[in-house]
Design goal:
Length: about 70
């Protein structure tokens, strides 16, 4: 497996890591034209979004708990 193929699999796995979200399948040919740096940037973006979403949920939960 090439590094590029692994990056594409990593992107697919990140997209499928969200709870209660329908499974995503990516046709590797759709991303194959991108260079490795672009694929890494996509992964970075997905990780950032996931982190921000998690932080937002933690903040919401903290506010909710303070109202109990």
């Amino acid at each position: 497996m090439t590094r590029k193929e692994q990056l594409i699999i990593d992107i697919q796995n990140l997209l499928n890591a969200y709870d209660n979200v329908k499974s995503t399948s990516i046709n590797p040919a759709l991303l194959a034209f991108m260079d490795e740096n672009t694929l890494v940037n996509i992964i970075d973006s997905l990780l950032t979004q996931k982190e921000e979403s998690h932080q937002s949920n933690v903040e919401w939960l903290s506010k909710f708990k303070s109202h109990e």
